[in-house]
# Entry
Amino acid sequence: MTATSEILALNQRRFNAMCACDIGELDRLLHRDLKYTHSSGVVDSKETYTRGVREKLWNYQSIRTSGESLSLYGDTALVHCRLQIDLKVKKVAKQVDSLALTVWIKDEGRWQVVAVHSTPYPK
# Structure
């Protein structure tokens, strides 16, 4: 498996874990220094993000991606894509349409997400 195919598969595992509220899988995929910038501009750490998923502050229903592109620079990978997310935020249904950048780094022998930055898709 190439690094590109491995990272894209890991990215899909992350989306699946978000929808399944699988905190164990998210713990493996997210780096301890994670900075997750939501399309709203709110920034979470790994601790606050996983707590929000666990407590269903963000209850992900489905996540669709399109236009994925990956750039690899040694032990750093940048994944750009369009995200279309159906979720409940504090039990209120919401649809997010955004452009996202996910930064994966190889640390301690495995790929982990160290940063996510999402911005609203242009209208």
Summary: The chain has a mean pLDDT of 96. The longest helix spans residues 3-20. The two ends are 37 Å apart (CA to CA).
